[in-house]
Write a structure and sequence with these properties.
single chain, mainly alpha, two-stranded antiparallel ribbon, 65% helix, 2% strand
């Protein structure tokens, strides 16, 4: 169970880094991409990665099947979490309506193709590396980290419902007023 938590956690963290990098490269006005109050994570990447990693070995053994299935899995997770964030948290974290071939603004073909590409290194290189590292983390570290994550997630959900995404931007108080 610890290995699954760490796969989720690290993929959520690397997804956060991916989001930050992508937002800066395309000069998106919303560059912070935070989904939690304290932890720098985007859970959609962790859930998407787990969905891909849970695919049967027969699919993972074929790069073409993995690409197609990975794109489908990640797109399904992205759509479900978009609905969750909109309906439960009361906020949309992403909107693809301006992109071609989108569905309800929650998913789009361009990113589905990217998710399929990302499934290949995830399964063939990242997961083996993560699993070997996660095996070294003792339960005495995993359990408190998982509890802290759950506490941060619950607090974040409360703040999102109450204040929208601004509720997660506590760090804005430390920026100079012209940078806000």
């Amino acid at each position: 169970m610890g290995r699954i938590f760490w796969q989720f956690f690290f993929c959520s963290f690397f997804g956060f880094l991916f989001e930050i990098t992508f937002a800066r490269l395309v000069r998106h006005p919303k560059r912070d991409r935070k989904c939690h109050l304290v932890l720098p994570v985007c859970p959609v990447y962790g859930v998407g990665a787990l969905a891909i990693l849970l695919l049967p070995w027969q699919i993972k053994a074929s790069p073409l099947l993995l690409y197609l299935s990975g794109a489908l899995c990640a797109t399904g997770v992205e759509w479900l979490l978009a609905v969750f964030y909109e309906k439960v948290a009361g906020v949309p974290f992403w909107d693809y309506k301006a992109l071609p071939w989108n569905f309800q603004g929650r998913v789009c073909l361009i990113f589905s193709l990217i998710w399929g590409l990302m499934a290949l290194p995830l399964v063939y290189w990242v997961e083996p590396w993560l699993s070997s590292r996660a095996a070294l983390i003792p339960p005495a570290v995993t359990i408190p980290t998982a509890l802290f994550y759950l506490g941060d997630a619950a607090t974040s959900l409360f703040l999102l419902r109450r204040f929208g995404t601004e509720g997660l931007r506590w760090y804005d108080r430390f920026k100079p007023s012209e940078a806000r």
